Amino acid sequence: MLYDAYEFQRSMMAGASKMASFGADMLNNPANPFAYLGGGTVVASALEVFAHANATRGKPAFGLDTTTIDGREVAVREEIVLRKDFGQLKRFVREGVEGGPKLLIVAPMSGHYATLLRGTVERMLPFADVYITDWRDARSVPLSAGRFDLDDYIDYLIEYLETIGANEGQGGTHMLAVCQPSVPCYAAVALMSADKNPCRPKTLTMMGGPVDTREAPTAVNTLATERPHAWFEQNVIATVPGNYPGAGRKVYPGFLQLAGFMSMNLGNHMVSHWEMYKHLVQGDGESASQSQNFYEEYRSVCDMTAEFYLQTIDVVFQNHALPRGIMTHRGRPVDPAAITDIGLLAVEGERDDISGLGQTKAALTLATALPDEKKRYLMAEGAGHYGIFNGSRWRDKIAPVVEEFITANG
Predict the structure, then answer these.
(1) Smallest Cα–Cα separation from 133: which of 188, 83, 183, 204?
(2) Residues paired with residue 87 on neighbouring β-strands, in sequence order
């Protein structure tokens, strides 16, 4: 019922959005005499903000067609290296460029598409041969594809690393996990290290990841721990309606995830929309466009499978399985002490309200057999959660440290 009610409301608002957009275009049309009446710009701006806020959105495109290397513009094309039911391994091929570190960026499966990391990819393209985990919207995966949980996520990561290594004839990929995948990436690294897998990565960079959520708990952590596991199963899991390929699949809907994040900073989001409105009224299209582009991406959401979401709540947030040494993968213990030769970089934002300070740094302490010279920690001053992988702080302060760490451990 929850998903069906949302679909009905979305359909209604989509129509209202198109009408508002049409009205804004008419009032902004210089051929329309009403556009010159007092208040015309104000009404048009209000309609435009409303239309943008309620527009129907699908999966955005990366849109990274070029990059600049040593002052030379280089064409970039996307290539699907491996296609699986719940995600694909995508590579950004730099035409005519050979060599460079292989970097697998692991996008979070947390309600947004991998394109949320567009700025992360863009910044690393001049430096590395970049791959990314491009997860599918669970509502688009037929029931015949079966389940997908945290164990499957780890299996995918190992297979992706082995695919990259096999394509190049060797291992040596570098791995960068943004937020949620820090835990499964860490587990994959530990398992591959224990197996002496030749395709294990040379480095793992974890950015704002919930490795040990007992450290500086945030509102997100509190929400996950103050209610029993059964509450999440009964209250936030929905069934995909019949108008999607994944009809009948149990999912944690992306629209619920978005609503949760928006409510955490409701005041800031309201101010952002007010600023967007003022920029439009004043004719400052560039500033308004920046806000629109951010929310275009931010509101593009996707569903995750119920089993993945519930297992993550249980393992990561409620039982703290990894830092307590009780995490398993298909019945096999995940032992951080098995990591002996993989460089670990933990990056945290000073103002991160999703993963508190110390949660990602804990990964360094858990790797008891790894020499200190293979470990590094960076606390990004003034950076919030999204600022550690996007924006000026990421580009100018954090990415250079990541590049230096990869080079030093290459």
Answers:
(1) 83
(2) 84, 135
